[in-house]
Amino acid sequence: MSKEAVAIIGGTGDQGLGLALRFAAAGRPVHIGSRKLDRATAAADEIRGRLPVAQVFGHDNGAATRAVAGGIVILSVPFEHTVSTLDAISAELAPGSVLVSMGVPLATAIGDVAARMIGVAQGSCAELCESRAPAGIEVVSAFQNVSAHRLADLEHAIECDVVVSGAKAPRARVMALCEDLPGTRAIDGGPLYNARYIEALTALLVGLNVRYKNRSGAGIRFTHI
Questions:
Q1: Which residues pair with 92 in a beta bridge?
Q2: Could you tell me if 50 and 71 are in contact, meaning their C-beta atoms sit under 8 angstroms apart?
Q3: What CATH number does residue 101 fall under?
């Protein structure tokens, strides 16, 4: 059975590109979106250079969203670009689509360090996305704590749990994506409001990586589940 295609908006950044690479390696069709078409096509070419049979395509953000009508659209952009990017693709989100928020309100958005957070009135980046998404579009939080370096290293398993939060049915669809990410385990994170706790862990991990000089990126494991 063929796998459901995914769109990764902001798929030219390190983490989005890493996800695209892993999904493509697992045989999943991937549509990479960028504000600049040439950057998206270059990212797709880079993946095909490593995986010649990969089903990966570069588009502008709107076209990438349309390419998976009713499917899973992963928003992988810095927090400060979340609202403008979501507003730009909102009209392209077809009924039945699941919008995945990977964003984290790190203080780099205001020129401070990445090991700190800034407040979001809605509680989290994911809840901010929910407040601005079109009616009928489900928002799910996932993948914030997965190291870009480990995603890009196809020779090794990622070794990180992925907490997925949102409504039950779309949450299950996103949890299934972890089957394509060797060494990850999908953790049922319950309602979307739990995203605020998971996003905050990202700032903690950034600080740990700095203090321990961990260029590969630390991950999280939940025991006895």
A1: none
A2: no
A3: 3.40.50.720
